[in-house]
């Protein structure tokens, strides 16, 4: 297989094959991920905000931080909320995708409070919703149209409020489980995937967070295979076995407070993954060409009132209509923010004649 296509997650359509996804150097990609994860073992608080309305905070104990740091790595999908990094054997950064030898206990679970708000998930768009958390658990869902109605119904599903799941100490399923980072700056909104009902490429883009609701535990302590206890428990009680009901946030500011130092570290700044601007990452990228071009985000979502002209309030009522029009322009070659602009090369040649 040509070197261009090594290291990317899929390349089954012309949009991705013709993009810069496969040209992003694998060692630069991994170094930027490692830089993102460096502070985790030393953290005592997480704070995330986003212009769509997300504002959520969680305290992290020293034990929780150590386990989080050990279990947080997955290539292109960093586990940036501690609960997803536990109840499993973590992946090895050095020998990825091999597993480490230590099982990381889920308890004590990390409990977030605040709001997650958004208009996108893994399969499309919906009217803006807010999911409210108190002490780690969902306490309310506002808006969201049909998507919100479905979650409000599922919150009442028998067993999800009162059963204690394996390897947990408190009853309930509807805890905040996931806040995962995409890490690849060349991924983009793919027209083919969009029209087939997927925003999967969105969540792979560097700095996009996808939040997942409801607990999941992958491994029993005896080995890195799917948890037998988890599967038997969920089958016996006919209750959910995995997280779902995702929300994407695209312009998040994600901050970590360092334990004992009263110092904050920014991992995302308005959706930009700050490790892509790290001096060591830039130096490594310079081996392949202009680091500014190599590390640039090739796609930023058009969001009226946030990254594009217009009213966010109007957009948030019906995101699909606006988003579909943007994709149609992109496919037609008339999208106004293309770089270089359509026809620019021909115009430059004509000007030189």
What is the gist of this entry?
The protein is an alpha+beta fold.
Structural class: alpha+beta
What does the average pLDDT come to?
A: 93
Q: How do the strands of the widest beta sheet line up side by side? A: 8-7-6-2-1-14-15-16
Order of helices and strands: HHEEHEEEEEEHEHHEEEHEEEEHHHHH
Strand content: 15-25%
How would you characterize the largest beta sheet?
8 strands, antiparallel
Radius of gyration using CA atoms only: 21 Å
Fold and architecture overview:
With 353 residues, the protein is α+β, with helices and mostly antiparallel strands. It has one domain (3-269). 27% of the residues lie in helices and 25% in strands. It contains twelve helices and 16 strands. The chain has an eight-stranded antiparallel beta sheet with strand order 8-7-6-2-1-14-15-16, with helices on one face. The chain has a four-stranded antiparallel beta sheet with strand order 3-9-10-13. Strand 1 (43-49) and strand 2 (55-59) form a beta hairpin. Helix 2 runs antiparallel to helix 8 (279-285). The longest helix has 14 residues, at 319-332. The two termini are 41 Å apart. The mean pLDDT is 93.
Question: Any chance you could write out the topology, listing elements then pairs?
Answer:
Layout: H1 14-17, H2 26-37, E1 43-49, E2 55-59, H3 62-71, E3 78-79, E4 88-91, E5 99-104, E6 112-120, E7 125-134, E8 137-143, H4 145-154, E9 176-181, H5 191-195, H6 200-204, E10 209-213, E11 219-220, E12 223-226, H7 228-237, E13 244-249, E14 253-258, E15 263-269, E16 272-273, H8 279-285, H9 291-294, H10 312-317, H11 319-332, H12 344-352
Antiparallel strand pairs: 1-2, 1-14, 2-6, 3-9, 4-5, 6-7, 7-8, 9-10, 10-13, 11-12, 14-15, 15-16
């Amino acid at each position: 297989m040509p070197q261009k296509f090594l290291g990317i997650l899929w390349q089954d359509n012309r949009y991705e094959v013709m993009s810069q996804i496969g040209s992003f150097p694998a060692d630069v990609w991994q170094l930027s991920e490692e830089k993102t994860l460096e502070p985790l073992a030393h953290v005592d608080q997480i704070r995330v905000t986003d212009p769509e309305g997300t504002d959520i905070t969680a305290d992290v104990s020293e034990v929780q931080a150590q386990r989080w740091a050990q279990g947080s790595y997955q290539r292109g999908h960093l586990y940036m909320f501690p609960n997803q990094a536990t109840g499993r054997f973590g992946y090895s950064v050095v020998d990825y995708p091999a597993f480490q030898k230590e099982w990381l206990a889920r308890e004590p679970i990390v409990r977030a409070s605040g709001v997650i708000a958004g208009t996108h998930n893994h399969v499309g768009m919906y009217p803006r919703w807010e999911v409210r958390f108190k002490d780690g658990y969902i306490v309310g869902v506002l808006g969201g149209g049909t998507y919100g109605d479905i979650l409000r119904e599922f919150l009442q599903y028998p067993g999800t409020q009162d059963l204690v799941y394996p390897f947990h100490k408190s009853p309930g399923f509807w805890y905040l489980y996931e806040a995962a980072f995409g890490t690849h700056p060349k991924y983009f909104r793919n027209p083919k995937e969009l029209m087939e009902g997927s925003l999967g490429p969105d969540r792979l883009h560097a700095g996009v967070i996808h939040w997942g609701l409801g607990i999941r535990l992958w491994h029993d302590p005896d080995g890195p295979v799917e948890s037998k206890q988890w599967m038997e428990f969920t089958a016996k009680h006919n209750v959910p076995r995995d997280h779902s009901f995702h929300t994407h946030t695209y312009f998040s500011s994600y901050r970590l407070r360092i334990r004992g130092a009263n110092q904050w570290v920014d991992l995302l700044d308005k959706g930009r993954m700050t490790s892509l601007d790290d001096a060591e990452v830039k130096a490594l990228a310079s081996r392949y060409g202009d680091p500014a071009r190599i590390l640039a985000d090739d796609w930023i979502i058009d969001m009226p009132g946030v990254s594009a002209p217009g009213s966010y309030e109007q957009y948030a009522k019906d995101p699909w209509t606006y988003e579909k029009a943007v994709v149609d322009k992109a496919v037609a070659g008339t999208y106004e923010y293309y770089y270089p602009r359509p026809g620019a090369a021909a115009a430059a040649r004509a000007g030189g004649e």
